[in-house]
Write a structure and sequence with these properties.
The protein has helices at about 20-30, 40-45, 100-105, 150-155; strands at about 5-10, 15, 55-60, 65-75, 80-85, 115-120, 120-125, 130-135, 140, 160-165, 175-180, 190-195, 195-199. With about 200 residues, it is an alpha+beta fold. It is globular and about 45 Å long. The longest helix has 15 residues, at about 20-30. It has two domains: about 5-75, D-amino Acid Aminotransferase, Chain A, domain 1 (2-Layer Sandwich); about 80-199, D-amino Acid Aminotransferase, Chain A, domain 2, CATH 3.20.10.10. Strands 10-9-8-11-12 form a five-stranded mixed beta sheet. It has a four-stranded antiparallel beta sheet with strand order 2-1-3-4. Strands 7-6-5-13 form a four-stranded mixed beta sheet, with no helix packed on it. It is built from four helices and 13 strands.
Length: about 200
């Protein structure tokens, strides 16, 4: 019924970066349904009183004309290590509600907190975020993501990061990495040592 979804960060009652979510929602509907959605995020995201303070995670399941909206107080996942997981045929070009393939891959995490997915030798994403790498001077993101996340696209637009071709063997050329998504914005204080990616 709702094959696509958006996750939106809400800070003290204010939904963040709605224009980027609206843009992706429209592009996804055009590609998936061949039809533009009738949904306007600014109008449909109305927060109940208990969710108007602090950091809240809004989850919008949708199709072109209908949606289901839920809210939860945000509790960040404590990811401190990544293990490599391999899948040369995975396709997650839109934010699909169906995530079984990612769930199966996540079982390869072993002793790590999450996975870094390698597709055809190229670095893509973790199970729930895009990834950035730093060489000490600049931050880059793989040009082969599974999903072009809204935070990733905004940071590229703002020239805070750039794209780079990153193969599995290139990971060791960087010093740090950072996980980003709609709930995890760019913040160098969250950078993790590259050695916590288990090769």
């Amino acid at each position: 019924m709702y094959p696509l979804f958006e996750t939106i960060r809400v800070e003290n009652g204010i939904p963040m970066h709605l224009e980027w979510h609206q843009k992706r929602m429209e592009a996804s509907c055009l590609d998936y349904f061949e039809e533009k959605p009738s949904l306007d995020l600014e109008k449909i995201i109305v927060l109940p009183e208990p969710y108007r303070k602090g950091i809240v995670k809004a989850r919008l399941l949708y199709n072109t004309t209908d949606y289901s909206l839920s809210f939860a107080i945000y509790t960040p996942r404590n990811v401190r290590s990544l293990c490599l997981a391999y899948d040369d045929t995975i396709d997650y070009g839109h934010k699909y509600s169906e995530r079984r393939r990612l769930t199966v891959l996540l079982e390869q995490s072993g002793v790590c907190d999450d996975i870094l997915i390698i597709k055809n030798g190229m670095v893509t994403d973790t199970s729930f975020t895009n990834i950035l790498f730093s060489d000490g001077e600049k931050w880059v993101t793989p040009d082969t993501p599974l999903l072009k996340g809204t935070c990733r696209e905004r940071l590229l637009y703002e020239n805070k990061i750039s794209e780079a071709t990153i193969r599995k063997e290139d990971i060791q050329d960087y010093d740090h990495y950072m996980l980003i998504n709609a709930m995890l914005d760019f913040d160098p204080s969250r950078a993790l040592d590259i050695r916590s990616i288990r090769m």
